């Protein structure tokens, strides 16, 4: 479950940044942007995942010994930021490898089943977070330029 974000309207700021910063400096700024953006995405995603009234009826195998101890909305995983070149990425939420984890059922919430309609929260989170992430990126790029160009 991956959402790629592309910032629009920052072209001039990015050109200015690329003209005065090294690739390592750009990577460091992008890492800082992703680190500041992770809590924003987690907060928005948490509000979009439904919660059952009774946690004992949640999770895999309702009624069996295997059940979760917290709602998925309260247990959203946040991975460390990875920097490759000038780009920075981080996973917020569950990846496809979580097939057998406690929250494997989140994919059924997102995509639906024959018994329940989809309650798409992954891409909705990305769309809602876009504005706040854009502001974070603009603020960090501008702060770097202000500190570099004097």
Characterization of the model:
With 150 residues, the chain is mainly α. It has helices at 11-20, 23-48, 106-111, 122-148, and strands spanning 82-84, 87-89. Helix 1 (11-20) packs across helix 4 (122-148) and helix 2 (23-48) packs antiparallel against helix 4 (122-148). The protein contains 4 helices and 2 strands, in the order ααββαα. Strand 1 and strand 2 form a beta hairpin. The protein is elongated. The chain has one domain (11-148). Strands 1-2 form a two-stranded antiparallel ribbon.
Summarize this structure briefly.
It is built from four helices and two strands. By secondary structure, it is mainly α.
Mind sketching the topology for me?
Elements lengths: L10 H10 L2 H26 L33 E3 L2 E3 L16 H6 L10 H27 L2
Antiparallel strand pairs: 1-2
What is the radius of gyration?
19 Å
Helix content bin: 40-55%
Total domain units: 1
The total of helices stands at 4
Strand order of the largest sheet: 1-2
How much strand? under 5%
Summarize model confidence as the mean pLDDT: 83
Low-confidence blocks of residues: none
Distance between the termini: 42 Å
Keyword list:
single chain; 150 residues; mainly alpha; two-stranded antiparallel sheet; 46% helix; elongated
């Amino acid at each position: 479950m991956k959402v790629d974000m592309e910032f629009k309207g920052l072209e001039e700021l990015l050109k200015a940044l690329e003209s005065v910063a090294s690739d390592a400096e750009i990577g460091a700024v992008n890492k800082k942007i992703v680190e500041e953006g992770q809590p924003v995405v987690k907060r928005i995603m948490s509000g979009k995942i439904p919660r059952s009234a009774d946690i004992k009826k949640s999770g895999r195998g309702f009624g069996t010994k295997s059940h979760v101890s917290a709602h998925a909305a309260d247990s959203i995983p946040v991975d460390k930021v990875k920097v490759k070149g000038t780009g920075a990425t981080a996973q917020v939420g569950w990846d496809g490898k979580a097939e057998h984890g406690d929250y494997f059922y989140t994919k059924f919430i997102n995509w639906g089943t024959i018994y329940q309609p989809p309650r798409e929260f992954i891409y909705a989170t990305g769309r809602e977070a876009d504005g706040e992430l854009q502001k974070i990126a603009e603020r960090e790029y501008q702060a770097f330029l202000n500190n570099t160009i004097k």
